[in-house]
Amino acid sequence: MLEILYQDEYIIAINKPSGLLVHKSFYARDAKVYAIQELRNQIGGRHVYPIHRLDRKTSGVLLFALDAAVLKIMNDRFATREVEKKYLAILRGWSPEELTIDYDLTNDDDIKQNAITYFHRLQNAEVELEFNNQPTSRYCLVEAIPETGRMHQLRKHFKHIFHPILGSRPHGCNKQNKLWLENFELKGMMLHAHQLIFNHPITNEQLILNAKINEEFSKVGTILNLDLNKYK
Q: Among 3, 168, 186, 217, which is most exposed with the fewest C-beta within 10 angstroms?
């Protein structure tokens, strides 16, 4: 059963589990289960329209419209950046305290697109995990707010500043991912869409939707001695 964060006659939001595709994808033809299908079955067969996307390995707030008219309203609001998306990520190394990454990304059609991400560091961590002939390894927890919505934007942007998201493939550190897989059996990616802020498409009331972190994110936080209580 999907965790429903909000539901009325116009929209519905879930806390998407990591590993669940939003819909069928050319890039993941092995998948048999999709968020659209699961949610539709869960609410009695009513059609749902995804308003935005989350990567397969990204967990967190995912918003759907319950009719085509509401879908158009919300698509327009996403396009005009009237919706604020906040993500939690665990990065390799200690990032700058805050930074706006303005770095163009190239899409699948080889078209360069402007991409902007603001983030600020929440906590630092250092653990006794040998890596690159160093006795310890450093990580940090950040909150990221993408101003644009390009494919794999956060993964690519954090890799660009040499602080890749832990567990990200292919836009990560393969050696770090292997280290965590062998030592802690980490298979997921430490990226979670924890909050979505927007005005309701019909009432215009501000909604703030929060999604709790999953078990694997919490486990990594415990290993790194991060305080994640407010996100559980």
A: 3
Give the model's pLDDT for residue 29.
62
Q: Which residue has the tokens 């397969």?
A: 56
8, 30, 55, 102: which is the annotated catalytic residue? Answer: 55
Give the pTM: 0.95
Distance CA(73)–CA(17), nearest Å, equals 26
Cα–Cα distance, 50 to 5 (Å, whole number): 15
Tokens representing 61? 């707030």
What is the chain's percent helix, strand, coil content, to nearest 5?
A: 25, 35, 45
The beta strand positions in 34-73, using DSSP E, are: 49-50, 59-65
For residues 124, 181, 16, 140, the Cα torsion angle rounded to the nearest 10 degrees is 10
110 noted as active-site residue: no
